[in-house]
Specification:
Shape: elongated
Order of helices and strands: HHHHEEHEEHE
CATH architecture of one domain: 2-Layer Sandwich
Strand content: 15-25%
Strand order of the largest sheet: 1-5-2-4-3
CATH superfamily of one domain: Sporulation related repeat
Number of strands: 5
Radius of gyration: 36 Å
CATH class of one domain: Alpha Beta
Number of helices: 6
Length: about 190
């Protein structure tokens, strides 16, 4: 009897041994899935608990801790001197931040007779940088000055200020010139 070798069957039968060799990955054990489920459940419960806390409770707790520390401060007034000096630096200056960056907004701020406005356009550690910005502002026909401040020991900052301005139209003109030249400014109100 002759045999036909030309037509061989293309598919082989898979045996159990070959099937086990093909699957190279193992499934995760059941205890690992249980642990992952417990952790996810705990996270969800914590988020639910945090969402139920009202802001009033947080403010109440903060005010209670604040009164406790104030009582302790009043009992022991002979504490060490404060390390920071910015409390005294910022006492007489008030920063007015506009609600929107729109310069066309013509809101009027109440101006007292003893108050002037300044525009702070930069603050630098290097005095050369402050001088170069001051020169640029003088070329824009703005009255610029440099104020040297030492908030901490061995640290000096050079603030570049434009002004003082006592009337609003002059202040608005200076702000528009600064913004047209790509210079951001911060409005400061100081007593004369």
């Amino acid at each position: 009897m002759t045999r036909d070798y030309a037509k061989k069957s293309s598919g082989r039968r898979t045996t159990k041994r070959q099937t086990k060799k093909r699957s190279g990955h193992q499934d995760a054990p059941g205890w690992l899935w249980l642990l992952a489920g417990v952790l996810i459940g705990a996270l969800v419960m914590a988020l639910i608990q945090l969402s139920e806390v009202s802001p009033e409770d947080v403010e109440k707790a903060a005010s209670e801790t604040g009164t406790d520390s104030q009582e302790e401060d009043s009992q022991g007034n002979s504490g060490p001197k404060p390390r920071f000096h910015f409390y005294t630096l910022l006492r007489d200056s008030e920063v007015i931040v506009p609600n929107t960056p729109d310069t066309n907004n013509k809101t009027t701020l109440p101006v007292a007779d003893d108050e002037v406005f300044l525009l702070q356009v930069g603050s630098f550690k290097n005095s050369h940088d402050a001088d170069s910005l001051r020169a640029r502002l003088l070329m824009l026909n703005l009255s610029a000055s440099i104020e040297t401040v030492s908030p901490r020991r061995n640290e000096t900052w050079h603030r570049v200020l434009v002004g003082p301005f006592s009337d609003r139209p002059e202040l608005a003109d200076a702000r528009s010139r600064l913004s047209n030249n790509g210079i951001d400014s911060l409005l400061l109100k100081r007593k004369q």
